[in-house]
Inverse folding.
């Protein structure tokens, strides 16, 4: 069996905006993508980020035999000691993954040695413009001023013969940096609190390595926390800051079995998951022999700049007016949340196949069964039963914030053009009192999810940019009970083929 078998995304691995600090350990918020060569019903899973739960006072009802749903509900409601501040649910064409991180667990890691060559800078293969490029105001949010990483595992491919994956990818990377030349630059401070890209052509970091281990030693399935993260994506000293450092870091590690691992670290200020996939897709196409990428990059960050600062942001005003924002509700909410030591956490995984998702949808009216996506279904289900588990004051306002990507939500001149690779995620917010969320049918929560998602269009994005400017990049505060979900499945890292499948 050959080709790509897994992709991991480690997101939210924060490095302070003003630089410094070691590359975060693997235990810090890794997200996972499970890709091909697993059983067909488990072909690919992204994840959603979420928050903790404690005691379920009302259990969801599932048909007999649906042990996955019952086990997932039990993990949310009755952990051994307490549950961590993140629960993740993954969606795929065939399956869904629920991950709950509990206390007092550990994960064994394979023992192996990695020999690295010194890190080098890969520069564009041809001359590129020297200029200062402005970022959008969506790119200026404080929570994207972090490093994120993607790790992909590939099997040996006999058809590639003796080709060296490190050399193939390095050469393709240099070619891709010609049209994507801003990635070869450095972030600088600009206009006070903002950042801009100084297109210097200095290049991106590239590390070539060999490991005395085969893919089979990493276990099946590959699941985080991946204890060997530091071995597969080397934190080159001085490279972790957000400003004045390389914007990308690649490490290609050849394995003893003939397979290899590609790890990429990105300065999130430059792009989101879709943007990174677009760039890596260009590298992959060039690695397979293409003369140029099929999708040419589009900068146009001015599309998502804030407007007149005297204007309000009407789409987002109600967030500031939500009951409990900045009041003693924060104290009440925080009293039911658990401050946990991130280093003492482990993961529990539950795969949701078609039968399990059908079991949840069976609780919905027929028309909603057809209209609700997998994300809608899982998001509404988790929001409702998490709220029941927290047992808040019935009048407490519960917020569900979802990262919704604006790509494809408008077409033509007013939309985000094909090739745009900046950050395009918006925070769509569903709001309900705890009483309504807990006592009304599941369809109530799912309809709120759909309604919040459907509001995300270009006007919503511009309103969000207005708010970011007014807040000078700071993310507006939410109550301690806010539930945050991110669906990463649309990034499609599983489509990346560098020639090995």
């Amino acid at each position: 069996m050959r080709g790509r078998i897994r992709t991991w995304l480690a997101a939210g691995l924060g490095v302070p905006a003003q630089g410094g600090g070691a590359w975060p350990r693997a235990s810090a918020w890794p997200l996972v993508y499970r890709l091909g060569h697993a059983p067909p019903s488990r072909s690919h899973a992204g994840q959603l980020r979420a928050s903790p739960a404690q005691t379920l006072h009302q259990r969801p009802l599932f048909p007999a035999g649906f042990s996955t749903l019952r086990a997932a509900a039990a993990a949310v409601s009755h952990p051994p000691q307490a549950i961590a501040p993140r629960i993740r649910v993954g969606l795929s064409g065939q399956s869904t993954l629920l991950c709950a991180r509990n206390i007092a667990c550990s994960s064994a890691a394979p023992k192996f040695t990695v020999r690295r060559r010194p890190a080098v800078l890969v520069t564009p293969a041809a001359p590129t413009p020297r200029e200062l490029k402005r970022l959008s105001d969506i790119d200026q949010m404080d929570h994207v001023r972090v490093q994120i990483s993607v790790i992909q595992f590939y099997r040996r491919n006999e058809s590639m013969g003796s080709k060296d994956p490190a050399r193939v990818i390095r050469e393709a990377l240099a070619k891709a940096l010609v049209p994507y030349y801003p990635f070869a630059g450095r972030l600088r401070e600009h206009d006070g609190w903002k950042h801009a890209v100084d297109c210097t052509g200095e290049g991106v970091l590239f590390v070539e390595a060999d490991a005395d281990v085969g893919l089979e030693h990493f276990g099946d399935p590959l699941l985080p926390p991946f204890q060997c993260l530091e071995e597969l994506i080397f934190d080159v000293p001085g490279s972790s800051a957000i400003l004045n450092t390389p914007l990308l870091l690649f490490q290609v590690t050849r394995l003893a079995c003939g397979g290899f691992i590609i790890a990429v670290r990105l300065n999130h200020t430059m792009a989101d998951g879709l943007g990174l996939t677009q760039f890596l897709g260009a590298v992959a196409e060039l690695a397979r022999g293409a003369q140029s990428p099929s999708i040419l990059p589009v900068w146009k960050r001015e599309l998502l700049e804030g407007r007149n600062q005297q204007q309000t942001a009407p789409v987002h005003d109600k967030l500031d007016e939500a009951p409990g924002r900045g009041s003693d509700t924060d104290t009440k909410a925080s009293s039911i949340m658990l401050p946990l030591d991130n280093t003492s956490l482990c993961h529990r995984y539950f795969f949701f196949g078609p039968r399990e998702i059908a079991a949840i949808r069976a609780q919905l009216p027929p028309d909603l069964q057809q209209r609700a996506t997998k994300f809608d279904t899982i998001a509404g289900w988790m929001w409702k039963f998490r709220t029941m588990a927290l047992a808040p004051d019935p009048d407490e306002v519960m917020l569900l914030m979802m990262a919704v990507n604006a790509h494809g939500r408008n077409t033509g001149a007013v939309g985000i053009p094909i090739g745009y690779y900046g950050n395009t995620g918006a925070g769509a917010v569903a709001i309900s009192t705890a009483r309504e969320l807990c006592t009304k049918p599941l369809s109530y929560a799912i309809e709120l999810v759909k309604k919040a998602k459907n509001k995300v269009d270009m006007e919503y994005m511009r309103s969000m940019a207005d708010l970011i400017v007014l807040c000078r990049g700071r993310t507006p505060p939410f109550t301690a009970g806010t539930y945050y979900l991110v669906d990463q499945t649309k990034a499609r890292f599983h489509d990346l083929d560098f020639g090995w499948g």
Summary: The chain is about 25% helix and 25% strand.
